[in-house]
Amino acid sequence: MTQKAGVDGRLFGSVTNTDVAEALTAQGFEVAKSEVRMPNGPLKTIGDHPVSVALHHDVVVDVTVSVVAEA
């Protein structure tokens, strides 16, 4: 995901579960925002962040969200 960020790596804003769900849907995976679990809250820095996606009651998938600064 690409977001505006300062020189210190902090984002102007944040990446939320809605943003992650939209990005996964754009890649061909049907994911609702309620299925995206962000254990540490919205992402506020660039880098790789672990996020869980609860596809079913018994099926939880861990994915890594890479946040990079806009050029």
Report a brief summary of the structure:
The chain has 71 residues and is mostly beta strands. Helices cover 14% and strands 48% of the residues.
Word description of this protein:
This protein is mainly beta. It is 14% helix and 48% strand. The protein contains one helix and six strands, in the order E-E-H-E-E-E-E. The protein has one helix at residues 17-26, and strands at 2-3, 10-15, 36-37, 43-45, 47-56, 59-69. The strands form two sheets. A four-stranded mixed sheet has the order 1-6-5-3, covered by helices on one side. Strands 2-4 form a two-stranded antiparallel ribbon. It is elongated. The mean pLDDT is 94.
Outline the fold blueprint.
Elements (H helix, E strand, L loop, with lengths): L1 E2 L6 E6 L1 H10 L9 E2 L5 E3 L1 E10 L2 E11 L2
Parallel strand pairs: 1-6
Antiparallel strand pairs: 2-4, 3-5, 5-6
Task: Give helix % range.
Answer: 10-25%
**Computed structural class:** mainly beta
Distance between the termini: 12 Å
How confident overall, as mean pLDDT? 94
Largest sheet: 4 strands, mixed
Uncertain spans, ≥5 residues at pLDDT below 50? none
Radius of gyration: 12 Å
> How many DSSP E strands?
6
* Overall shape: elongated
Which percent range describes the beta-strand content? over 45%
Main sheet: strand order: 1-6-5-3
Can you write the helix and strand succession as a string? EEHEEEE
Q: Report the total helices.
A: 1
